[in-house]
Every structure is written in C-alpha cells, then in structure tokens.
Amino acid sequence: MPAETAPTVACPTCGGPALFAPGNRWRPFCSERCKRIDLGAWAAEEFRVASPEPEEEGPPDGQGA
C-alpha cells in the first residue's frame, strides 16, 4: 500500500496523527517515545481487564461455627 493512500489514525498515547502503514515502524503509535510510554503503562499495570467480583463463600464443609 503506498504511503499516500495509507490511513492516518490517532496515536493511542498522545492522540496525534500516526500513519498506519508498513513504513511506520511504531504503528499504531506516532513515535518510539509514544510506544515506550504505552509499554511502561502496561508494565506498571495501569491497564487492566475488569473482571466480576468473586462471590463470597462461606467456610468449607466441616469447618466454621
């Protein structure tokens, strides 16, 4: 796909324009800096997948009051 026809997307980190083409080695990011910021956020566990709260269970059979 020629660079002229490649779509431009918003960089997930800074929101700036990022060329979504094989010529952009950091795609979908606009730069290596933005890619590293995103990687750091994942490493610091800033991005998490929500899960339902586990239901509270009573004590196992044979134990408790």
TrEMBL record:
<feature type="binding site">
    <location>
        <position position="14"/>
    </location>
    <ligand>
        <name>Zn(2+)</name>
    </ligand>
</feature>
<dbReference type="Pfam" id="PF03884">
    <property type="entry name" value="YacG"/>
</dbReference>
<protein>
    <recommendedName>
        <fullName>DNA gyrase inhibitor YacG</fullName>
    </recommendedName>
</protein>
<comment type="similarity">
    <text>Belongs to the DNA gyrase inhibitor YacG family.</text>
</comment>
<comment type="subunit">
    <text>Interacts with GyrB.</text>
</comment>
<dbReference type="InterPro" id="IPR005584">
    <property type="entry name" value="DNA_gyrase_inhibitor_YacG"/>
</dbReference>
<keyword id="KW-0479">Metal-binding</keyword>
<comment type="function">
    <text>Inhibits all the catalytic activities of DNA gyrase by preventing its interaction with DNA. Acts by binding directly to the C-terminal domain of GyrB, which probably disrupts DNA binding by the gyrase.</text>
</comment>
<feature type="binding site">
    <location>
        <position position="34"/>
    </location>
    <ligand>
        <name>Zn(2+)</name>
    </ligand>
</feature>
<keyword id="KW-0862">Zinc</keyword>
<feature type="binding site">
    <location>
        <position position="30"/>
    </location>
    <ligand>
        <name>Zn(2+)</name>
    </ligand>
</feature>
<dbReference type="InterPro" id="IPR013088">
    <property type="entry name" value="Znf_NHR/GATA"/>
</dbReference>
<feature type="binding site">
    <location>
        <position position="11"/>
    </location>
    <ligand>
        <name>Zn(2+)</name>
    </ligand>
</feature>
